[in-house]
């Protein structure tokens, strides 16, 4: 049996053992006075209204039923108060948006409400309090006792239940302070309602209820508008953070992380729309990015396809609303779901899908917030792509597409810092120069020489791979930067490069030939190697040392050789 089923069975068994027998005993020992049906229905209606107009404290709905609970208890006694509290509990549970199953919440909350009512009511009675008393001093003292015991019992039960489930909960927290403040702020309303109803009848409910619920509704609207304003402010902050990112990957990651945090979702997906297919670009689940193991699907499939075809956003409060739509890539625990197409220059580029385990996780205004964020995202992504192109243009050789001297200068400086800080044990530089390259240009033309440089760049890139960085140092000189390579290993690596180039046949077009036909030629290279920390602890000295080894140790020794720098 899974843990949830076991917990549900235990709670319902406990409920059967506690609540029905407890109600029977309370009715036997503390029966209610004669009841007027109109009075009970009026109070019930006010209980329902109190549940329909909660106050939002720090984003958590707070139901102000305490002022009615105390008044009902003082007038009708424990049994009626328990019954109305149980009905209130059901309404509150149905309205609260949590991921926990109703089959678990109903028995627990029913037992909790029953226990709070029983403990507070019996304390009131044993302390000498009288039901339906009109002695104001007694009403205030014993009513306050009832309210205080209710508050304390509620805190102990919630704390104990959290400990049983091995969940973290502070006994004293900001929520506790708010509950305490609200409980005792509404207490005067309870006394006023009870005393007024005793003298004026049901008219007192209207005299106090109308202004109370009007005030609650105003506060509810105000807190909602405050939430919208706060979300807008957070969206603006996220927009600035996205704009500060210089690479497209950083923009993607920051967007997904911040949106998931803002909307408190469990799952977030960014899907690319390209060539009639949807391809997963980011998969964010349980606060971390997951491997992209999903295959592309047709653009008209799933929630993403629906958003693209209709070019519209969608929000679902529970799985029952979207389970008929194929959504294989969305986590199976998802309940609430929100999807929005991402457009750039009036063209749909992809879809953002957010999902949460809890039902009713999203609010209508969040669609507008998400639309604003998607615009920030699209603009920031376009800017990052332009920045990357500009950087690539400034760091790459226009002919060979290899890194240039400017980039190499920065890269070798960073690597040397790592050597000096102990983060890298070794660093080697291999400098290469094509032998007799001027003769090749003179014989076949400079464009033919450029073809050799391009083919050589591709050859070096394939040979070096991810082991290091290949750069064109200038003219026919090339450099390979090898972090972590000792001089001995670098010499072997350089020798392999030399042999591979020596036997490779380069294909060029002879510019100086009347036919401009293709010609196959072979070249050789002279190579110099310098390493740190053996040869130097300075970046520029590494380049000079490799250059010295190239010309003195390889060129002057007959070319087509590999030479190491020696002090």
TrEMBL record:
Protein's UniProt name: Diguanylate cyclase with GAF sensor
Tell me which Gene3D superfamilies the record gives. 3.30.450.40, 3.30.70.270
Q: Does the keyword Transmembrane apply?
A: yes
Q: Which domain of life is it from?
A: Bacteria
**GGDEF domain location:** 425-567
Which CDD domains does the entry mention?
GGDEF (cd01949)
Q: Where would you find the membrane-spanning parts of this chain?
A: 12-30, 42-64, 76-96, 108-127, 139-159, 171-193, 199-223
Q: Which GO terms describe its biological process?
A: cell adhesion involved in single-species biofilm formation; negative regulation of bacterial-type flagellum-dependent cell motility
Q: Which NCBIfam families match?
A: GGDEF
Q: Name one GO cellular component term.
A: plasma membrane
- Whether Transmembrane helix counts among this entry's keywords is yes
Tell me which UniProt keywords the record has, alphabetically: Membrane, Transmembrane, Transmembrane helix
Q: Which GO terms describe its molecular function?
A: diguanylate cyclase activity
């Amino acid at each position: 049996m899974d843990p949830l089923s076991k917990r549900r069975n235990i709670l319902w068994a406990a409920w059967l053992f506690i609540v029905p027998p407890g109600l029977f005993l309370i009715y036997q020992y503390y029966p209610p006075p004669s009841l007027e049906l109109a009075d009970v229905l009026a109070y019930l209606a006010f209980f329902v209204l109190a549940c329909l107009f909660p106050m939002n404290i720090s984003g958590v709905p707070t139901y102000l039923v305490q002022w009615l609970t105390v008044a009902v208890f003082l007038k009708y006694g424990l049994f009626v108060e328990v019954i109305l509290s149980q009905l209130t509990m059901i309404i509150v549970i149905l309205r609260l948006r949590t991921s926990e199953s109703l089959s678990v919440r109903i028995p627990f909350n029913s037992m909790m409400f029953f226990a709070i009512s029983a403990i507070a009511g019996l304390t009131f009675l044993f302390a000498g309090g009288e039901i339906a008393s009109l002695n104001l001093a007694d009403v205030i003292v014993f009513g306050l006792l009832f309210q205080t015991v209710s508050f304390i019992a509620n805190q102990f039960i919630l704390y104990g239940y959290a400990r049983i489930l091995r969940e973290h909960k502070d006994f004293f927290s900001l929520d506790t302070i708010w509950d305490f403040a609200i409980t005792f702020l509404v207490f005067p309303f309870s006394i006023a309602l009870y005393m007024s109803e005793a003298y004026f009848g049901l008219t007192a409910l209207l005299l106090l209820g109308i202004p109370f619920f009007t005030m609650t509704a105003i506060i509810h609207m105000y807190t909602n508008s405050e939430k919208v304003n706060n979300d807008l402010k957070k969206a603006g902050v996220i927009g600035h953070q996205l704009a500060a990112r210089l690479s497209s990957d950083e923009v993607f990651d920051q967007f997904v992380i911040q949106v998931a945090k803002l909307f408190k979702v469990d799952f977030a997906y960014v899907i690319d729309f390209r060539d009639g297919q949807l391809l997963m670009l980011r998969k964010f689940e349980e606060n971390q990015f997951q491997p992209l193991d999903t295959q592309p699907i047709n653009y008209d499939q799933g929630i993403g396809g629906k958003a693209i075809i209709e070019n519209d956003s969608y929000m679902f409060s529970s799985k029952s609303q979207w389970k008929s739509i194929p959504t294989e890539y969305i986590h199976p625990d998802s309940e609430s779901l929100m999807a929005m197409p991402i457009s750039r220059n009036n063209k749909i580029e992809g879809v953002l899908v957010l999902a949460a385990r809890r039902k009713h996780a999203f609010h209508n205004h969040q669609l507008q917030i998400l639309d604003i964020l998607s615009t920030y995202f699209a603009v920031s992504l376009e800017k990052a792509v332009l920045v990357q192109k500009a950087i690539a243009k400034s760091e790459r050789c226009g002919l060979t597409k290899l890194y240039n001297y400017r980039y190499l200068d920065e890269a070798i400086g960073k690597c040397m810092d790592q050597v000096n800080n102990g983060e890298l044990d070794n660093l080697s530089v291999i400098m290469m120069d094509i032998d007799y390259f001027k003769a090749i240009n003179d014989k076949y033309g400079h464009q033919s020489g450029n073809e050799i440089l391009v083919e050589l760049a591709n050859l070096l890139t394939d040979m070096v791979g991810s082991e290091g960085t290949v750069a064109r140092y200038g003219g026919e000189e090339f450099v390979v930067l090898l972090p972590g390579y000792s001089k001995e290993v670098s010499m072997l690596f350089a020798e392999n490069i030399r042999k591979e180039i020596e036997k490779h046949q380069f294909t060029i077009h002879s510019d100086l030939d009347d036919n401009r036909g293709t010609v196959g030629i072979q070249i050789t290279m002279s190579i110099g190697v310098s390493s740190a920390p053996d040869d130097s602890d300075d970046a520029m000295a590494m380049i000079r040392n490799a250059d010295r080894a190239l010309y003195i140790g390889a060129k002057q020794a007959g070319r087509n050789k590999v030479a190491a720098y020696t002090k």
